[in-house]
Amino acid sequence: MRGERVYHNPVQRGFFPDPSVIRVGDDFYMVNSSFQYFPAIPISHSRDMVHWHIVGHAITNPEWLDLSDIKDSHGIWAPDISCVDGKYYIFATLRLNGDGLRGNNVLRRQLVMVSDRPEGPYSKPVCLEEDNIDPSHFADEDGSRYMIIARAAQAVPLSKDSLAVTGESRTVWNGTGERASEGPHVFKKSGYYYCMVAEGGTGYGHGINVARSTELFGRYEESPYNPVMRQTDPDAPIQRAGHGKLVQDQNGQWWCYYLCGRQNGGRYTTVGRETALDPVQWLDDGWFTINYGKGPSLEQTAPALPEHTFETQAADDFDEKELRREWEFVRTPDNGSWSLTERPGYFRIWTRDGRLDEIRAKNTLLRREQELSYHAETKVEFYPDRNGEQAGLTCYYSTVTYARFAVCYEDGRKLQLVINRNRGEELIAEIPSPEEAAVWLAVDVKGLTRTFSYSYDGRDWKTAGVLENCIYLCDEGVPEDRKRHTGTLVGIYANNGGCGSRKPADFDYFKYEDGVNA
User: Fold this and answer.
1) Whose CA is closest to 355, among 384, 390, 322?
2) 91, 92, 294, 517: which sits with the fewest CB atoms below 10 Å from its CB?
3) Domain of 175?
4) Does 4 participate in catalysis according to the annotation?
5) Domain of 345: which CATH number?
6) Alpha-carbon distance 54 to 368, whole Å?
7) The model scores a pTM over 0.90
8) Does residue 249 carry a catalytic annotation?
9) 411 in the Ramachandran plot: left (φ > 0), alpha (ψ -120 to 50) or beta?
10) Catalytic one among 18, 178, 274, 278?
11) What is the pLDDT of residue 266?
């Protein structure tokens, strides 16, 4: 790689699972799963295939997607972006609770959104009643359109506008027989239909298998190079490699974007499932390999495209009229309980019912952790006077696994460091706090260790507590909690702990700096 520009995997760092990518001229657009977070389905943009930034979301209107009672790691699964006849389509699975509370026991529905621009805005989602997962969009050369959906690869015929199912599904390919087939994609090249399926489960042992046929519903032969992507070294930094899609650059070179996860202090992917990139090699026999069959790369020669980076700012001063696109709410927010304009230059949250360990909690505002080591801090003005009221900083995985460091009221104003590792809340540290002081709160993360500190002037910092071995903040660290597909995010929150109050908490800024403790 001497003399060539290189990049390091993953290219989309942090909670960016299940990638789907298209090229539009000199631009690339990616969508990823968002699960219970809102706005739903981040849409990212790149010019060089390596550097990405979020330019929109497929669903931004809370009236179009009610996630208010969606369980952890349910919600939006495995979206796909495509372009057919000048229209851009995003397909995605809406994974419901299946508990009968919405009038039936349907587990999964498919959503379709359409736009004239890849970054959106997109139309109100249309629901397709197909109870499976991971839809992708395929338009054949004869004008036929299909939704390709798991298990393995089933083709569901669609109308000419792709917004309605017109017939029964048919099997394209049954997969290799490995377990948990998902993420199917079909594309056509040089007279062959190629079918890619992720198999082996979305954890360790995940991979991509391929088959081809000269007819969409013909006899498929499996690639002799299967799995074309899989991590076989259990000690390698990048694991869980699979669920991918191919894209061709402007120079004719093919690439594969795929799901992966970085290990943190063992087999723990604390930042969640991410997106990696490796080159594709087309062989003389018409098959392809990804990264020459060597599995995911750590360092790779960059695409022969002009480097195009995006400006990033460590601190959000909340001076803009809209939230930056890197922010996510946990489930559907209560837009009447937060404001950027009530006190200009501050993000104000009013306390309301719903604690962090409850699905009904509203207006927990988070951003992705992107590295295994980072520093985050905020300044909050919050003056509680009723037991249960709290506002502050949180490292959040789910309603049953998080850490929170907050200004609270428990028979007096205090700072509390609390964890939940699927055993209910546990008080780690409690510090009396001056009644009328603003408080700076910070967390320093280094691997599996998280150090929380506080200040009353932003200069003189004191340690509140050190959390060691935080394996509960990842997909794998709580095996009894079966649905864990997201990753740890960091941000701010406020609630009243059930006391019924509505009190403002004003956050002056939020700073996030990667790698400062590496």
Assistant:
1) 390
2) 294
3) 6-301
4) no
5) 2.60.120.200
6) 12
7) yes
8) no
9) left
10) 18
11) 87
